[in-house]
Amino acid sequence: MTNQDAGLRGESLPDGGAVPPIALPALFLKFLRFGALAFGGPVAQIAMLRQALVEEERWIDKPRFNRLLAVLQVLPGPEAHELCVHLGMIARGRAGGLLAGLGFMLPGFVLMLLAGWAYVTWVAGRAGWSGILLGVQIVVLAVILRSVVRIGQHIIENRLLGLIAFASLAATLLGAPFWIPLLAGGLAYALAKRPALVMLVVAVAVGLAVAASLLGVPVVQPIPLAHTSAGAGALFLAGLKGGLLTFGGAYTAIPYVRADTVGRGWIGDAAFLDGIALAGVLPAPLVIFATFVGYVAGGLEGALMITAGMFLPAFAFSLIFFERLEAVIEHPALHRVLEGVAAAVVGVIAATFVHLAQATAGRVMVPVLALVLFAAALAAAWRLKGAWVTPAIMLAGALVGWWLLTT
What we know:
Blueprint: H1 3-8, H2 24-36, H3 41-56, H4 62-73, H5 79-123, H6 130-155, H7 159-173, H8 179-190, H9 195-215, H10 232-244, H11 253-261, H12 269-281, H13 289-320, H14 322-330, H15 335-361, H16 367-383, H17 389-403
Helix pairs in contact: 2-5, 3-5, 3-6, 4-14, 4-15, 5-13, 6-12, 6-15, 6-16, 6-17, 7-8, 7-15, 8-9, 8-15, 10-11, 10-13, 12-13, 16-17
């Protein structure tokens, strides 16, 4: 009996979870609701899915969810979206996976289309909006930090996993490619009872990180071209490249998309950064910023094409390789490897928070006000509960940014 078959009848799954009987329209609406509440980027989205489907409805148990997240982290594409596709398949097979993925991305896609239209029509070139976007960015950082802590509390179960997470954070901040801490973390935890091999893994990982740092090779090199018009096919390929190369999390799509759009003169750096800021505000996977970039560069057709390219790998990997992913997740010999990878993932996303905070700080003109806003938003995210909390924090950030940070 497959997990999908068990889930359809509401029976217990091999891992102790149980997917209740759910019709395809209801499944689509469930993930549409998740998509409408998916504020705060991938970290917050994963925490929301964990709370609803693991903690409350118990579709799968916590260890299996952690292993699934570790596997999805090393696949290209936005991990929260891929998680929805995979959970939809657990419930209702490939049709369920397709509908869950579409439902999760649809609210953000529609809102980003509207945002792109409004930006081109009213916002572009007007300085009065900069404070609003900056205020929202600051409070989004607070939401992300709270989510990093929440996920870490579920994954970091002992000192060794904590050490792996910290080492991963440090390595990522020092510029190590994402795969080095993930690989080293998985191997170190799997070989924890063999200290000599652990030391060898650490030494090799440090050597690789130092070599990458000394080489100083950027992820991509923008190649300016003479023309400034963006064709639909070229935008699809730009999105597909970003979708295929987003190993290590959705944030890694940013340099690839920038190289193929800003680097070709299709959109300016300022508008590109505004798209990333809007993606952090909207309930959507972070890579939905590509929709904005496509709209500014090539109108509605451009937005549709770059979005299709960006999300195609996220659907394809889960829909095509579902059974193999399940086999990896259920293989006992790989559990410790995946637990170590999951701990390293916590470090990587914590480093992403630091990088985003540094980028936002560079735009702040009044640091004291920004710190007060961040602290207030963090306190609200930490203490308050409910689906309304994150949207309320975003609205407050926009208002404060408009009122104070533009002066």
